[in-house]
Amino acid sequence: MYNCSFFDYYTNSFNNRRPLFMAKSQLRPKASLAEKRTVKTPRRPKNADVRSREYLTETELEMLMAAVKGNRYVHRDATMILVAYRHGLRVSELTDLRWEQVDFATAALAVRRIKRGTPSTHPILGDELRALRRLQREQDPKSPFMFTTERGGPFTAAGVARMLERAGEVAGLPFKAHPHMLRHACGFALANKGHDTRALQGYLGHKNIQHTVRYTELTQTRFKNFWR
Cys-Cys link to 219, which of 69, 84, 146, 191 (CB 3.0-4.6 A)? Predict the structure, then answer.
């Protein structure tokens, strides 16, 4: 006979049994976002690492304009290169040019700048003015934009880049030509003509003069009297 009650016996027997379900092992905490491995995409090399310089000389500019003579729209492409160079335009400023910005009576161009640049009014020289008059007269279909494709839409930055790259190849340039070279070419040409840094800053629309100093630092006339 047992000295315990049936309830005590049943309870003790149940407690001594192996549990039917094993306790779940503690899960390993998930790695934080900082600990996760990330795949780094290769960075585009700096322009200075792949090109000896970032501007075009006046001779190279003439070679580019001559190289587009084989294009379907010769006058449009040549005028585009000339206008971008004369006014130091970024490619998006070039493609956004509208006829309303040109005052043919006073030969002036209202230049709008991006990147919070300073807007200004530039004079238009005779050869450029004649080229713009012809471009407006021959533009078909008519458009409020100055430079348009054969379908009548405004030119894109990628379209300008492709046109310049092809022209550079035809001209035999030893490097790949790109639109921003025209802006740099403008800065270096004006610096070589002896224009002061402040005036050049206003012409190019730079907010920070440090962006303008690069042109005066590399001007050809800076050291011309050192050995005289």
Answer: 191
Which listed residue (86, 183, 184, 203) is catalytic?
183
| Residue from 86, 87, 90, 184 carrying the catalytic annotation | 90
Which of the residues 115, 130, 162, 222 is marked catalytic?
115
pLDDT at 41 over 70: no
How many C-beta neighbours within 10 Å does residue 152 have? 12
What pLDDT sits at residue 7?
A: 47
Is 184 an annotated catalytic residue?
no
DSSP secondary structure letter of residue 123: E
Whether the per-residue pLDDT at 95 is higher than 80: the answer is yes
User: What is the tens place of the pLDDT at every residue in 99-115?
Assistant: 999 999 999 999 999 98
- Mark whether 72 is an active-site residue: no
Non-local CB neighbours of 189 within 8 Å, separated by 6+ positions: 58, 85
For residue 183, indicate whether it is catalytic. yes
Structure tokens at 187: 């800065």
Active site residue 180: yes
At position 53, the amino acid (one-letter code) is R
